[in-house]
Design a protein that fits this description.
The chain is mainly alpha-helical and about 140 residues long. Helices cover about 75% and strands about 0% of the residues. The chain is built from 6 helices and no strands. It is elongated, with a radius of gyration of 17 Å.
Length: about 140
């Protein structure tokens, strides 16, 4: 197995996706402020604070996660020179597992957890589909 062919696209795609998601979450935190004391160190306070957030905050967060997974699929596809779907699929799975870990660590509405886990793989696949090499007729 060649590092640059299989591992590097997944690492780059995952890192790019997680970076975009982290920056998007940071941006949303500046718009939707949580009360003091609502941190992962006090999960009960965090849970109460998250329940007070408007639906719009969660929908925007889903959008951020979708964009992050889309860009991760694009990045993985570009690194593999646009010839294989595998890195994008693996990146989608990696981000899904990261979403599962996030859902287990941070209290969130159940509907959001389910919706969130359903967007990573389609987002990464869409990134692949838009970026892949198109077959040219007559070749």
């Amino acid at each position: 197995m060649k590092f640059t062919k299989y591992v590097l696209p997944v690492v780059v795609g995952s890192a790019v996706g997680m970076f975009i998601i982290s920056m998007g979450e940071f941006g949303l935190q500046s718009v939707y402020h949580l009360p003091d004391g609502a941190t992962v160190k006090d999960l009960e306070a965090l849970k109460k604070a998250l329940l007070l957030l408007p639906l719009q905050a969660f929908l925007l967060l889903l959008g951020v996660h979708f964009v992050g997974s889309f860009v991760s699929g694009v990045a993985a596809t570009l690194v593999i020179k646009r010839v294989s779907i595998r890195p994008a699929v693996i990146v989608g799975v990696v981000l899904t597992f990261a979403g599962i870990a996030n859902a287990l660590m941070i209290p969130q509405p159940v509907w959001f957890s389910f919706a969130n886990l359903l967007i990573y793989l389609p987002g990464a696949l869409l990134g692949y589909l838009i970026t892949r090499k198109k077959e040219v007729a007559g070749q």
